[in-house]
Design goal:
Family: Belongs to the MnmA/TRMU family.
Distance between the termini: 56 Å
CATH architecture of the largest domain: 3-Layer(aba) Sandwich
Catalytic activity: S-sulfanyl-L-cysteinyl-[protein] + uridine(34) in tRNA + AH2 + ATP = 2-thiouridine(34) in tRNA + L-cysteinyl-[protein] + A + AMP + diphosphate + H(+)
Function: Catalyzes the 2-thiolation of uridine at the wobble position (U34) of tRNA, leading to the formation of s(2)U34.
Subcellular location: Cytoplasm
CATH topology of the largest domain: Rossmann fold
CATH superfamily of the largest domain: HUPs
Order of helices and strands: EHEHHEHHEEEHEHHEEEEEHEEEEE
Number of strands: 17
Enzyme class: transferase
Structural class: alpha/beta
Protein backbone atom coordinates (compact mmCIF):
# COMPACT_ATOMS: atom_id res chain seq x y z
CA UNK A 1 0.00 0.00 0.00
CA UNK A 2 1.25 3.53 -0.82
CA UNK A 3 2.52 5.81 1.90
CA UNK A 4 -0.09 7.80 3.76
CA UNK A 5 -0.78 11.25 2.34
CA UNK A 6 -1.50 13.82 5.07
CA UNK A 7 -4.32 16.35 4.89
CA UNK A 8 -3.22 19.64 3.34
CA UNK A 9 -3.40 21.29 6.76
CA UNK A 10 -3.26 18.76 9.63
CA UNK A 11 -4.39 21.45 12.05
CA UNK A 12 -7.71 21.65 10.22
CA UNK A 13 -9.34 18.23 9.84
CA UNK A 14 -12.16 17.88 7.35
CA UNK A 15 -14.86 18.25 9.99
CA UNK A 16 -13.23 21.33 11.53
CA UNK A 17 -13.63 20.13 15.10
CA UNK A 18 -16.97 18.36 14.70
CA UNK A 19 -17.49 15.12 16.60
CA UNK A 20 -18.41 13.04 13.55
CA UNK A 21 -17.96 9.49 14.79
CA UNK A 22 -20.90 7.42 13.59
CA UNK A 23 -22.82 10.39 12.19
CA UNK A 24 -24.27 9.77 8.75
CA UNK A 25 -23.19 11.67 5.67
CA UNK A 26 -24.23 11.09 2.07
CA UNK A 27 -21.55 11.44 -0.60
CA UNK A 28 -22.60 12.29 -4.15
CA UNK A 29 -20.55 9.71 -6.05
CA UNK A 30 -20.15 10.37 -9.78
CA UNK A 31 -17.70 7.53 -10.36
CA UNK A 32 -14.75 9.88 -10.71
CA UNK A 33 -11.64 10.24 -8.58
CA UNK A 34 -12.81 13.41 -6.78
CA UNK A 35 -16.01 12.05 -5.27
CA UNK A 36 -14.37 8.68 -4.62
CA UNK A 37 -11.54 10.29 -2.65
CA UNK A 38 -14.15 12.34 -0.78
CA UNK A 39 -15.95 9.19 0.35
CA UNK A 40 -12.69 7.57 1.42
CA UNK A 41 -11.54 10.57 3.48
CA UNK A 42 -14.87 10.93 5.26
CA UNK A 43 -15.01 7.25 6.14
CA UNK A 44 -11.49 7.45 7.53
CA UNK A 45 -12.51 10.40 9.66
CA UNK A 46 -15.32 8.39 11.26
CA UNK A 47 -18.45 9.36 9.39
CA UNK A 48 -21.10 6.76 8.57
CA UNK A 49 -20.77 7.21 4.81
CA UNK A 50 -23.51 6.36 2.31
CA UNK A 51 -22.77 6.75 -1.40
CA UNK A 52 -25.49 7.91 -3.80
CA UNK A 53 -25.12 8.06 -7.58
CA UNK A 54 -27.68 9.79 -9.78
CA UNK A 55 -28.38 8.00 -13.05
CA UNK A 56 -28.96 10.81 -15.53
CA UNK A 57 -28.94 8.84 -18.78
CA UNK A 58 -30.46 5.69 -20.14
CA UNK A 59 -28.12 2.99 -18.82
CA UNK A 60 -27.97 1.02 -22.05
CA UNK A 61 -27.02 4.05 -24.15
CA UNK A 62 -24.65 5.47 -21.57
CA UNK A 63 -22.40 2.47 -20.90
CA UNK A 64 -20.07 3.22 -23.79
CA UNK A 65 -19.74 6.93 -23.19
CA UNK A 66 -16.23 8.00 -22.28
CA UNK A 67 -15.32 11.08 -20.25
CA UNK A 68 -18.83 11.81 -18.98
CA UNK A 69 -20.27 11.70 -15.50
CA UNK A 70 -23.39 9.96 -14.22
CA UNK A 71 -23.41 7.55 -17.16
CA UNK A 72 -23.32 3.74 -17.18
CA UNK A 73 -19.57 3.17 -16.80
CA UNK A 74 -19.37 5.81 -14.10
CA UNK A 75 -22.18 4.18 -12.14
CA UNK A 76 -20.25 0.92 -12.32
CA UNK A 77 -17.08 2.69 -11.13
CA UNK A 78 -18.93 4.31 -8.22
CA UNK A 79 -20.22 0.91 -7.16
CA UNK A 80 -16.71 -0.58 -7.32
CA UNK A 81 -15.38 2.23 -5.12
CA UNK A 82 -18.19 1.75 -2.60
CA UNK A 83 -17.42 -1.98 -2.48
CA UNK A 84 -13.74 -1.23 -1.91
CA UNK A 85 -14.59 1.12 0.96
CA UNK A 86 -17.27 -1.15 2.40
CA UNK A 87 -20.00 1.49 2.32
CA UNK A 88 -23.62 1.20 1.12
CA UNK A 89 -24.27 2.57 -2.35
CA UNK A 90 -27.54 3.55 -4.00
CA UNK A 91 -28.30 4.46 -7.62
CA UNK A 92 -31.28 6.76 -8.14
CA UNK A 93 -32.88 7.28 -11.57
CA UNK A 94 -33.22 10.99 -12.26
CA UNK A 95 -33.09 10.82 -16.04
CA UNK A 96 -36.44 12.54 -16.67
CA UNK A 97 -35.75 15.27 -14.11
CA UNK A 98 -32.31 15.92 -15.55
CA UNK A 99 -33.71 16.15 -19.06
CA UNK A 100 -36.41 18.61 -18.01
CA UNK A 101 -34.37 20.83 -15.67
CA UNK A 102 -31.03 20.81 -17.45
CA UNK A 103 -30.99 19.47 -21.02
CA UNK A 104 -34.22 21.11 -22.23
CA UNK A 105 -33.27 24.46 -20.69
CA UNK A 106 -29.82 24.15 -22.27
CA UNK A 107 -31.41 23.72 -25.71
CA UNK A 108 -33.84 26.60 -25.23
CA UNK A 109 -31.03 28.89 -24.12
CA UNK A 110 -28.95 28.09 -27.19
CA UNK A 111 -31.89 28.73 -29.52
CA UNK A 112 -32.38 32.10 -27.80
CA UNK A 113 -28.81 33.10 -28.66
CA UNK A 114 -27.48 32.64 -25.14
CA UNK A 115 -24.41 30.82 -23.83
CA UNK A 116 -25.80 28.46 -21.18
CA UNK A 117 -23.92 26.85 -18.29
CA UNK A 118 -25.69 23.53 -17.63
CA UNK A 119 -23.32 22.58 -14.78
CA UNK A 120 -24.79 25.40 -12.68
CA UNK A 121 -28.34 24.29 -13.51
CA UNK A 122 -27.47 20.71 -12.58
CA UNK A 123 -26.07 21.78 -9.20
CA UNK A 124 -29.04 24.08 -8.67
CA UNK A 125 -31.67 21.44 -9.42
CA UNK A 126 -30.86 17.73 -9.59
CA UNK A 127 -27.85 17.75 -7.28
CA UNK A 128 -28.55 20.42 -4.67
CA UNK A 129 -32.33 20.12 -4.66
CA UNK A 130 -33.25 16.51 -5.29
CA UNK A 131 -30.11 14.95 -3.81
CA UNK A 132 -30.67 16.95 -0.62
CA UNK A 133 -34.05 15.28 -0.25
CA UNK A 134 -32.50 11.86 -0.75
CA UNK A 135 -29.83 12.59 1.86
CA UNK A 136 -32.40 13.63 4.42
CA UNK A 137 -34.56 10.59 3.65
CA UNK A 138 -31.50 8.46 4.43
CA UNK A 139 -31.13 10.15 7.80
CA UNK A 140 -27.96 12.02 6.88
CA UNK A 141 -26.74 15.07 8.77
CA UNK A 142 -24.76 16.36 5.80
CA UNK A 143 -24.15 15.94 2.07
CA UNK A 144 -20.61 15.90 0.70
CA UNK A 145 -19.38 16.44 -2.85
CA UNK A 146 -16.00 16.39 -4.55
CA UNK A 147 -16.12 20.05 -5.59
CA UNK A 148 -13.01 22.15 -5.14
CA UNK A 149 -14.44 24.86 -2.90
CA UNK A 150 -14.05 25.52 0.82
CA UNK A 151 -16.65 25.93 3.54
CA UNK A 152 -15.94 28.06 6.59
CA UNK A 153 -18.07 28.40 9.70
CA UNK A 154 -17.99 31.90 11.20
CA UNK A 155 -19.94 33.74 13.93
CA UNK A 156 -22.02 35.37 11.17
CA UNK A 157 -22.80 32.07 9.44
CA UNK A 158 -21.26 29.65 6.97
CA UNK A 159 -19.17 31.12 4.16
CA UNK A 160 -18.16 29.61 0.83
CA UNK A 161 -14.54 30.19 -0.19
CA UNK A 162 -12.66 29.55 -3.39
CA UNK A 163 -10.77 26.29 -3.63
CA UNK A 164 -7.21 26.49 -2.33
CA UNK A 165 -5.98 25.49 -5.79
CA UNK A 166 -7.31 28.36 -7.89
CA UNK A 167 -6.59 26.37 -11.02
CA UNK A 168 -9.25 23.85 -9.96
CA UNK A 169 -11.57 26.20 -8.06
CA UNK A 170 -15.21 25.38 -8.88
CA UNK A 171 -16.96 28.16 -6.99
CA UNK A 172 -18.13 29.68 -10.29
CA UNK A 173 -20.39 26.66 -10.80
CA UNK A 174 -21.74 26.80 -7.23
CA UNK A 175 -22.75 30.45 -6.98
CA UNK A 176 -26.46 29.48 -6.79
CA UNK A 177 -25.95 27.43 -3.60
CA UNK A 178 -28.24 28.84 -0.92
CA UNK A 179 -27.32 29.55 2.69
CA UNK A 180 -29.45 26.62 3.90
CA UNK A 181 -27.76 24.29 1.43
CA UNK A 182 -24.33 25.53 2.45
CA UNK A 183 -25.14 24.67 6.07
CA UNK A 184 -25.80 21.07 5.00
CA UNK A 185 -22.89 20.69 2.58
CA UNK A 186 -19.29 19.54 3.09
CA UNK A 187 -16.42 19.91 0.60
CA UNK A 188 -13.47 17.78 1.79
CA UNK A 189 -11.30 18.48 -1.26
CA UNK A 190 -11.49 22.28 -1.12
CA UNK A 191 -8.22 22.62 0.77
CA UNK A 192 -6.25 20.32 -1.53
CA UNK A 193 -3.27 22.01 -3.12
CA UNK A 194 -3.57 20.14 -6.42
CA UNK A 195 -5.31 17.29 -8.23
CA UNK A 196 -2.17 15.21 -7.66
CA UNK A 197 -2.98 15.19 -3.94
CA UNK A 198 -6.45 13.87 -4.66
CA UNK A 199 -5.09 11.09 -6.87
CA UNK A 200 -2.53 10.23 -4.19
CA UNK A 201 -5.37 9.79 -1.70
CA UNK A 202 -7.18 7.51 -4.14
CA UNK A 203 -4.02 5.44 -4.54
CA UNK A 204 -3.54 5.25 -0.77
CA UNK A 205 -7.01 3.75 -0.41
CA UNK A 206 -6.39 1.55 -3.47
CA UNK A 207 -9.46 2.89 -5.22
CA UNK A 208 -10.02 1.50 -8.73
CA UNK A 209 -10.49 5.01 -10.19
CA UNK A 210 -7.17 6.48 -9.01
CA UNK A 211 -5.90 7.04 -12.56
CA UNK A 212 -9.27 7.61 -14.24
CA UNK A 213 -9.16 10.69 -16.53
CA UNK A 214 -11.15 13.79 -15.64
CA UNK A 215 -14.48 14.23 -17.42
CA UNK A 216 -14.37 16.62 -20.36
CA UNK A 217 -16.88 19.00 -21.95
CA UNK A 218 -20.52 19.00 -20.90
CA UNK A 219 -21.42 15.59 -19.50
CA UNK A 220 -24.43 14.99 -21.77
CA UNK A 221 -22.51 16.17 -24.86
CA UNK A 222 -19.35 14.03 -24.60
CA UNK A 223 -18.41 14.65 -28.23
CA UNK A 224 -18.57 18.43 -27.78
CA UNK A 225 -21.12 18.87 -30.60
CA UNK A 226 -23.51 21.22 -28.78
CA UNK A 227 -25.13 22.45 -31.99
CA UNK A 228 -25.86 18.88 -33.09
CA UNK A 229 -27.64 18.16 -29.81
CA UNK A 230 -29.73 21.32 -30.05
CA UNK A 231 -30.70 20.49 -33.64
CA UNK A 232 -31.93 17.08 -32.52
CA UNK A 233 -33.87 18.50 -29.58
CA UNK A 234 -35.33 21.52 -31.41
CA UNK A 235 -35.88 20.45 -35.02
CA UNK A 236 -37.18 23.34 -37.08
CA UNK A 237 -36.02 25.97 -34.60
CA UNK A 238 -32.69 26.45 -36.34
CA UNK A 239 -33.01 29.02 -39.13
CA UNK A 240 -30.47 30.60 -41.44
CA UNK A 241 -29.78 34.32 -41.34
CA UNK A 242 -27.34 37.11 -42.03
CA UNK A 243 -23.87 37.71 -40.69
CA UNK A 244 -23.76 41.47 -40.17
CA UNK A 245 -20.89 43.81 -39.35
CA UNK A 246 -21.40 46.16 -36.38
CA UNK A 247 -21.44 49.02 -38.93
CA UNK A 248 -24.53 47.48 -40.59
CA UNK A 249 -22.96 45.82 -43.64
CA UNK A 250 -24.22 42.32 -44.51
CA UNK A 251 -21.11 40.15 -44.91
CA UNK A 252 -22.56 36.70 -45.48
CA UNK A 253 -25.03 34.03 -44.38
CA UNK A 254 -25.09 31.50 -41.56
CA UNK A 255 -27.00 28.23 -41.05
CA UNK A 256 -28.19 28.97 -37.50
CA UNK A 257 -27.03 31.11 -34.60
CA UNK A 258 -26.52 27.97 -32.48
CA UNK A 259 -23.25 27.47 -34.36
CA UNK A 260 -21.80 30.68 -32.91
CA UNK A 261 -20.89 32.14 -29.54
CA UNK A 262 -19.75 35.58 -28.41
CA UNK A 263 -16.01 36.01 -28.86
CA UNK A 264 -15.73 33.35 -31.57
CA UNK A 265 -13.32 34.05 -34.40
CA UNK A 266 -12.92 30.78 -36.30
CA UNK A 267 -15.59 29.33 -38.54
CA UNK A 268 -17.09 32.60 -39.79
CA UNK A 269 -16.05 31.82 -43.38
CA UNK A 270 -16.05 35.47 -44.43
CA UNK A 271 -12.93 35.40 -46.56
CA UNK A 272 -9.96 37.70 -46.17
CA UNK A 273 -9.62 41.04 -44.44
CA UNK A 274 -9.00 42.07 -40.83
CA UNK A 275 -9.88 39.51 -38.11
CA UNK A 276 -13.53 39.58 -37.08
CA UNK A 277 -15.18 38.22 -33.93
CA UNK A 278 -18.75 37.42 -32.95
CA UNK A 279 -19.89 40.46 -30.96
CA UNK A 280 -23.46 39.45 -30.22
CA UNK A 281 -26.26 37.16 -31.38
CA UNK A 282 -29.67 38.62 -32.25
CA UNK A 283 -31.90 35.56 -32.08
CA UNK A 284 -35.21 37.24 -33.01
CA UNK A 285 -33.70 38.68 -36.19
CA UNK A 286 -31.53 35.57 -36.78
CA UNK A 287 -28.44 37.80 -37.05
CA UNK A 288 -24.86 37.08 -36.10
CA UNK A 289 -23.19 40.43 -35.49
CA UNK A 290 -19.41 40.56 -35.97
CA UNK A 291 -16.75 43.20 -35.55
CA UNK A 292 -13.15 43.94 -34.60
CA UNK A 293 -11.67 42.69 -31.35
CA UNK A 294 -12.01 46.05 -29.64
CA UNK A 295 -15.80 45.83 -30.08
CA UNK A 296 -15.91 42.83 -27.71
CA UNK A 297 -15.30 44.97 -24.62
CA UNK A 298 -18.21 45.55 -22.24
CA UNK A 299 -18.20 48.04 -19.40
CA UNK A 300 -21.29 46.79 -17.55
CA UNK A 301 -23.82 43.95 -17.36
CA UNK A 302 -27.30 43.52 -15.91
CA UNK A 303 -28.10 40.36 -13.95
CA UNK A 304 -31.19 38.40 -12.96
CA UNK A 305 -31.70 35.40 -10.68
CA UNK A 306 -29.11 36.71 -8.22
CA UNK A 307 -28.23 34.47 -5.26
CA UNK A 308 -26.60 36.46 -2.46
CA UNK A 309 -24.30 34.74 0.04
CA UNK A 310 -22.87 37.92 1.54
CA UNK A 311 -24.16 39.76 4.59
CA UNK A 312 -27.94 39.55 4.91
CA UNK A 313 -28.35 43.26 5.65
CA UNK A 314 -26.88 44.14 2.25
CA UNK A 315 -29.57 42.12 0.51
CA UNK A 316 -32.28 43.61 2.73
CA UNK A 317 -31.02 47.10 1.92
CA UNK A 318 -31.21 46.37 -1.80
CA UNK A 319 -34.82 45.24 -1.50
CA UNK A 320 -35.80 48.30 0.54
CA UNK A 321 -34.02 51.14 -1.28
CA UNK A 322 -34.68 52.53 -4.72
CA UNK A 323 -31.01 53.52 -5.01
CA UNK A 324 -28.95 50.78 -3.42
CA UNK A 325 -25.29 51.37 -2.69
CA UNK A 326 -22.47 50.18 -4.91
CA UNK A 327 -20.00 47.69 -3.46
CA UNK A 328 -16.44 47.09 -4.57
CA UNK A 329 -16.08 43.39 -5.43
CA UNK A 330 -14.25 41.10 -7.81
CA UNK A 331 -16.24 39.19 -10.43
CA UNK A 332 -15.82 36.30 -12.86
CA UNK A 333 -17.81 36.01 -16.08
CA UNK A 334 -16.05 32.84 -17.24
CA UNK A 335 -15.06 29.88 -15.08
CA UNK A 336 -11.51 29.85 -16.44
CA UNK A 337 -10.78 33.53 -15.77
CA UNK A 338 -9.45 35.09 -12.61
CA UNK A 339 -11.79 37.54 -10.84
CA UNK A 340 -11.51 41.17 -11.94
CA UNK A 341 -12.39 44.35 -10.01
CA UNK A 342 -15.91 45.69 -10.42
CA UNK A 343 -18.64 47.66 -8.70
CA UNK A 344 -21.81 45.78 -7.73
CA UNK A 345 -25.24 47.26 -7.13
CA UNK A 346 -27.86 44.82 -5.85
CA UNK A 347 -31.45 45.53 -6.82
CA UNK A 348 -34.87 44.18 -5.87
CA UNK A 349 -36.29 40.80 -6.92
CA UNK A 350 -32.94 39.15 -7.54
CA UNK A 351 -31.58 41.78 -9.92
CA UNK A 352 -28.17 43.43 -9.94
CA UNK A 353 -25.94 45.64 -12.04
CA UNK A 354 -22.20 45.14 -12.38
CA UNK A 355 -19.82 47.82 -13.63
CA UNK A 356 -16.36 46.61 -14.64
CA UNK A 357 -13.41 48.81 -13.76
CA UNK A 358 -11.87 47.72 -17.07
CA UNK A 359 -13.86 46.47 -20.11
CA UNK A 360 -14.38 42.70 -20.21
CA UNK A 361 -14.37 40.70 -23.44
CA UNK A 362 -16.62 37.80 -24.38
CA UNK A 363 -19.58 38.74 -22.18
CA UNK A 364 -22.66 36.80 -23.29
CA UNK A 365 -26.27 36.48 -22.08
CA UNK A 366 -26.86 33.19 -20.29
CA UNK A 367 -23.46 33.14 -18.63
CA UNK A 368 -22.98 33.60 -14.91
CA UNK A 369 -21.37 36.57 -13.23
CA UNK A 370 -20.03 35.50 -9.82
CA UNK A 371 -19.05 37.92 -7.04
CA UNK A 372 -16.07 37.60 -4.70
CA UNK A 373 -14.57 39.44 -1.76
CA UNK A 374 -11.06 38.04 -1.91
CA UNK A 375 -11.43 34.32 -1.26
CA UNK A 376 -15.05 34.55 -0.15
CA UNK A 377 -17.87 33.85 -2.62
CA UNK A 378 -20.58 36.51 -2.29
CA UNK A 379 -22.99 34.94 -4.78
CA UNK A 380 -23.76 35.65 -8.39
CA UNK A 381 -26.42 35.94 -11.06
CA UNK A 382 -27.24 35.34 -14.71
CA UNK A 383 -26.16 37.81 -17.38
CA UNK A 384 -29.22 39.04 -19.24
CA UNK A 385 -29.98 41.21 -22.20
CA UNK A 386 -30.60 44.72 -20.93
CA UNK A 387 -32.54 46.00 -23.94
CA UNK A 388 -29.59 47.91 -25.38
CA UNK A 389 -28.30 46.06 -28.47
CA UNK A 390 -25.02 47.97 -28.22
CA UNK A 391 -24.36 46.20 -24.93
CA UNK A 392 -25.51 42.63 -25.57
Amino acid sequence: MAARVPFPDPARPLSHGEDVMGRRIVVAMSGGVDSSATAALLKEEGWDVVGVTLQLYDHGQAVGRANSCCAGKDIHDARRVADRLGIPHYVVDYESTFRQDVIERFADSYVAGETPIPCVLCNQTVKFRDLFGIARDLGAEALATGHYVRREETPSGVHMLRGADHGRDQSYFLFATTRDQLDFLRFPLGSMGSKDETRAIARRFELPVAVKPDSQDICFVPDGDYAGLVERLRPGAIEAGDIVHVDGRVLGRHEGIIHYTVGQRRGLKLGGGPPLYVIRLEAAARRVVVGPKEALGRSAVALSGVNWLGEAEVEAEAEAEAEAREWAVQVKIRSTREPVPAMLRLGPAGSADVRFLHPEEGVAPGQACVFYDGERVLGGGWIRRDGNPQNL
